[in-house]
Amino acid sequence: MSLLEEVLDIGIALSRTVEWEKLLDLILTKARSLTSADAGSIYLVKNKELVFVCSQNDTLSKRLGKKKVQELFQSFSFPLDQKSIAGFVALSKQPLILADVYKEAHKYDLSLFSKWDRVNNYHSQSVLTLPLLNPQEEVVGVLQLINAREGEKVVPFKSEFLLPLNYFTSQAAVAIENARLYAELKEAHLDSLFRLGVAAEYRDKETSAHIRRVGELAKLLARELGFGQEELEMVFWAVAMHDVGKLGVPDAILLKPGPLTPQERKIMEKHTIIGGCILHKAKSSLLRNAKVVALTHHERYDGTGYPKGLKGEEIPLLGRIAGLVDVFDALSSARVYKPPYSEEKVRLILREEKGKHFDPFLVEILEDKWVECWKIKDLYQDEKYVFNLQETLVDKLWEEINEIGS
User: Fold this and answer.
1) What 3-state class would DSSP assign to 151?
2) Residue 48 is a catalytic residue
3) What is the pTM of this model?
4) Other Cβ atoms within 10 Å of 112 Cβ, number
5) pLDDT per position as a tens digit, 85-121
6) Of 30, 219, 246, 291, which residue is the catalytic one?
């Protein structure tokens, strides 16, 4: 297979990768493989700066271990100007080959190279720097490869690499922009879901901190059950929307300060059905799982819950997880009708309800991760005097609206 054919095959792999970190790592790995480069970095253009986002170094990985080397690479940014080699290449939109960076690049600021080499006992010599240009000839970033090798010997990068690498960097630039767009769309999608969950909790005088807590607590349990990383993210967002059905509960019932009548309780319990209806026939797997959570997080392990009276493992696992972490958070948090319970009291209640309200195995996992659960509580605390703060925020926004109108 020719170098050009190999580049085209790599382009197919890049087009199929949308996860940000995996894509950057793939670009750098393939570029180094094509050129026999010992090391390399990727810089992306953002707000007239170059942002260091990814780096690899075989020599240091062999010396220190890959994990340790990954810890050395901290993201940073520097001005997009012609003082640096990466900045010059980005602005000129032309590749630059240097056989010996310290001997041939006197007009550039080499502090990034010298500092890195000095701190890590490394020597940068041959350098190939290429612009990442999208189809509109706009610079997306810069790819920098360091120390081409023939065996153990450092050699200059070959000029014949430039043509196939031109195709490669064009494909990489398109893949980066696609991944950025995917990430933005995903963020917008998840942000909308989170705000929908917040809207439901806001009506019930809750805060977004409650949603964060139950989502993180659910992830903690799911991780112990062996869920993968993508599944854990799904668990967080699905559980975060557990009470979305409260959007359909009348204010007179939802906000009633005293105990509910039996008839009002029946209406309140319908928030599980309403949540299921809101999420019915959702196309995304995340929303389909959120529907399961909305419908089943008030089922009880002994079959006395609602809306269907499911029992034991008839209750979907996500529903059992959501039901446990929701009650744990309710017990350990302040409510309008009670102060937060102590750790001892929360533990006692959970143990008493083990096998009744809750899946006993999940309770055991929660107790095993007890310290981590309370750390989550501390990390995502409710705002003090949240109702006053909410009213103040509304008043402030109203003032701004009036100023704009005038």
Assistant:
1) coil
2) no
3) 0.58
4) 18
5) 999 999 999 999 999 999 998 889 998 899 889 988 9
6) 246
